[in-house]
Specification:
546 residues; alpha/beta; FAD/NAD(P)-binding domain; Enolase-like, domain 1; five-stranded parallel beta sheet; 13 helices; globular
């Protein structure tokens, strides 16, 4: 079997390597337009910040090493220009000589990836305009910083790559601003209130987010001096474009392969609609395993998982890829980490679920252990089925473990009830006696069962706490101008508080407010709510006593 693979980064190299382990008789050839293959695209921002020190660390395999390791033939600087399914041939151009040559196949795998989106605006030909897609891009940006030519930079794009580049530039002493057309950074990855929290932390670290802003141009005498936006002009020595990516599929025009917005549509076995042609990686659609709808998941993890399954199907199996959950984790500016899997509350509502969510602030390990911190965890579930729908988490610790528990739970269709008494690992350096994830689930269940009555940070921002008197429930008075209530003193009617009065109970994280609510309910208080996440997540303005 002659297998031709177009693309040599994540999906393409995974397909070839796995196929040749499963069927050594296969004749596999990879065509890739770059000079490098199998490079660490997700590690590029960390090379910029000198977290990854050497250029060579970005290259997982050289073509020669890969050929010896796997048995696949690799032709670099060779770009596919057309596909002829009727003849089972691909025409490709040698980028060094310009020669166009036909390559025959029995099976074709398209894994051509995607390229950075570059808007049509003036000034992008100036020196110090960068993208971030290949090792050469990261090398060029770091060189510009280390030679002293970049003191101020604008990063266009508030997604993963943009924020990771911003963090690493700031670590190198560069003054950084991040602009994005969307209302918030990390659009569609987090719910708006969590994105706003990230923006606040960025600003505290001196990385200024500007959202709802359009990039309009660049000015300078030979090199970047000013970045033009729809809001104002910004002085800068460099512009990094991290606006997004577009699938590399233009060469498929006329091939008959079905696509959606330039992205190849595949079935569960990664086959296209054209016989003997498969696709995987950033150029292809997969499926959202919760909604069953087509999903674009341009992630290295997706590329490798899909590539492995595709290879096994080429080797004669019939394995379905169940799809993605939108899972991701990222290291953000200010030492903050974030993770998400499943549907956000916003997405779940749009899908028609009867949604309940709870935002909690919980310890990430035993509070007395050095380095202990907090996780902000937002869980979303379906009220009727009680199934967990989504997990969002922020914190300085290992957010990936919370995220990955959510992946397992959602993949197996778990209800919140099935997640409360699981035997999670515990030792003070790693976790809490009741695991942070289980703690967050317990809070969500209390809300679903009515023992916890609350207002979410999003609801508070919308003004849904108006008319409620704020009561400070902290261990010691912490909210200036608010009535303080020590829960340990509650033994009946509280002086100055009517049992029917609408109250909002607030503490640092929400736990002490919940304990206060529990006690007040016992003594007949009928209209109390706690603020989820407390003052850790939501700032309460100080007021003078009247």
């Amino acid at each position: 079997m002659k297998v031709l693979v177009l693309g040599g980064v994540a999906a393409g190299t995974k397909v070839a390597a796995k196929l040749l382990r499963a069927d050594r008789s296969a004749e596999v050839c990879i065509l890739t337009r770059g000079k490098d293959i199998s490079y660490a695209g997700c590690g590029l921002p960390y090379y910029v910040g000198d977290v990854i020190h050497e250029e060579s660390q970005l290259i997982v395999n050289t073509p020669a090493k890969y050929e010896k390791l796997t048995g696949a033939k690799v032709l670099t600087e060779t770009e596919a220009v057309s596909v002829n399914p009727g003849e089972h041939k691909v025409e490709a151009r040698d980028l060094r000589t310009g020669e166009v040559k036909a390559y025959a196949y029995d099976k074709l795998v398209i894994a051509t990836g995607a390229s950075p989106f570059v808007p049509e605006i003036p000034g992008l030909d100036l020196e110090n305009v960068f993208v971030m897609r290949t090792p050469g891009d990261a090398i060029a940006l770091r060189r510009a910083v280390e030679t002293g030519g970049v003191k101020r930079a604008v990063v266009a794009g508030g997604g993963f790559i943009g924020l990771e580049v911003a963090e690493n530039l700031a670590a190198k002493g560069v003054k950084v601003s991040v602009i994005d057309f969307a209302p918030h950074v990390l659009p569609n990855f987090l719910d708006p209130e969590l994105s706003a929290y990230v923006e606040d932390k960025m600003a505290e670290e001196g990385i200024m987010p500007m959202t709802g802003v359009t990039l309009e141009g660049v000015e300078g005498a030979g090199r970047v001096e000013k970045v033009l936006t729809s809001r104002r002009a910004m002085k800068a020595d460099a512009l990094v474009l991290a606006i997004g990516i577009r699938p590399n599929t233009g060469f498929l025009e006329g091939s008959g392969i079905k696509m959606f917005k330039g992205t190849i549509l595949t079935d569960a076995c990664l086959r296209t609609n054209v016989e003997d042609i498969y696709a995987a990686g950033d150029c292809a659609m997969v499926t959202n395993r919760q909604t069953g709808k087509p999903a674009w998941s341009p992630m290295g993890s997706t590329a490798n998982i899909a590539g492995r399954i595709l290879a096994e199907n080429l080797a004669g199996k019939e394995i379905s890829y169940p799809g993605v959950l939108g899972t991701g984790v990222a290291k953000l500016p200010g030492g903050l980490n974030t993770g998400r899997t499943g549907l956000t509350e916003t997405a779940a509502i749009a899908e028609g679920y009867d949604v309940v969510s709870a935002l909690s602030v919980v310890d990430d390990k035993a509070h007395y252990y050095p380095g202990a911190g907090s996780f902000i965890i937002k869980l979303t579930a379906d009220k009727s089925s009680r199934k967990l729908l989504g997990v969002q988490v922020l914190g300085k610790g290992a957010v990936d473990k919370v995220t990955d528990i959510g992946v397992t739970a959602i993949s197996l269709g778990a209800t919140v009830d099935q997640l409360t008494a699981m035997d999670f690992a515990y030792a003070p350096p790693f976790s809490t006696a009741i695991h942070p994830f289980a703690h967050a689930v317990n809070i969500l269940m209390n809300k679903m069962e009515g023992t916890l009555e609350s207002i979410t940070p999003a609801e508070y921002a919308e003004g849904k706490a108006e008319g409620r008197r704020i009561i400070d429930c902290s261990p010691a008075p912490a909210l200036r101008g608010k009535q303080y209530l020590d829960l340990t003193t509650i033994g009946g009617l509280v002086e100055g508080m009517d049992r029917e009065e609408p109250l909002l109970l607030v503490c640092a994280k929400g736990k002490r407010a919940y304990l206060t609510q529990n006690r007040l309910k016992y003594y007949g208080y009928t209209d109390t709510r706690i603020l989820e996440g407390g003052t850790t997540f939501t700032e309460i303005e100080d007021e003078e006593e009247e």
